[in-house]
């Protein structure tokens, strides 16, 4: 009983810290203080996105990534992929059960599929390592490897998020806008296919718009021109710029430094001649956690102010999918991987794999709804409830996961 209580304290302290800093962010966003207003959040978010997060990811991976650790962590990308697949299936079930409107379907599937695999882990893991009741051994070693796991999780999660969820929300919002156009434009049927497709041409190019003359000229184009055209279209569809976000670029740099012995000797370690560069990156990266948490609190305030008429069953469905069904499924998957020897017997690594199934929805989904102008207010309400209940859910699941990896 005492051991369980120690684990509960160790699991609840990080979540409590997150709640306190999140609450402070919400207070600072109030009109009375206006320290984290819309403009301030935008500028602060840019600093986090372009400076703090890339430094944190690159420095953490450079410290912890070696060929040996890469062999151990190969299952993590697959594990994250499984969370997206199962979450998507659950999201489709929620859409069918609640009969959600078209413009919210992509948002619902996205919230069920994509968890906050970066910032939440980067916040929770270091705090768990420092707690006395933690089952992960020496705090410094735990912190070093834990940040490596969390950074890799952030990089892989960002790739899946911007290549998969981004397109789900894009397609859902574009279909919704087309339905609205048809409803409000009864003469739209008489328009040419080119006119009807022009509003979405940049988002999803239409093949029906090609005339006979264009087809004839296309046959004459060289293979290189066709390949270039295809790559440009693919780039527009999957948003390569977002996939290669600064955090992902930082992860690539971290891998290069960690896996190249010559560069590693120059940058990593107190005796390294250029260790000041790594120390500077670590210093900048340390600003990521408090900044992200403050921004998260300020953003959640929009959910309190929002006057959205979102159906309560949709919120309940997302909560049940993310905080009950997905974590239970995750236990079976990770346990199975451990049983068959796919996952190494490292308690911290196993804890991170479990936790990837229990985190709340990714905050960047809100950015996507703003980008496409579909479901923005509903997303704020969903995030408010999801992150409000995450304080209870994460504490309970973290306690149970710690008990699993320590037993």
From TrEMBL:
GO terms under biological process: auxin-activated signaling pathway; endoplasmic reticulum to cytosol auxin transport
Signal sequence bounds: none
TM spans (from-to): 15-35, 73-95, 107-128, 148-169, 243-261, 281-301, 313-334, 354-372, 384-404
Chief place where the protein resides: endoplasmic reticulum
UniProt keyword terms in alphabetical order: Auxin signaling pathway, Endoplasmic reticulum, Membrane, Transmembrane, Transmembrane helix, Transport
Entry superkingdom: Eukaryota
Keyword hit for Hydrolase: no
InterPro entries for this protein: Mem_transp_PIN-like, PILS1/3/4/5/7
Presence of the UniProt keyword DNA repair in the record: no
Subcellular location: Endoplasmic reticulum membrane
Gene Ontology cellular-component terms listed: endoplasmic reticulum membrane
Membrane topology listed for this record: Multi-pass membrane protein
Family the UniProt entry places it in: Belongs to the auxin efflux carrier (TC 2.A.69.2) family.
Known function: Involved in cellular auxin homeostasis by regulating auxin metabolism. Regulates intracellular auxin accumulation at the endoplasmic reticulum and thus auxin availability for nuclear auxin signaling.
Record protein name field: Protein PIN-LIKES 3-like
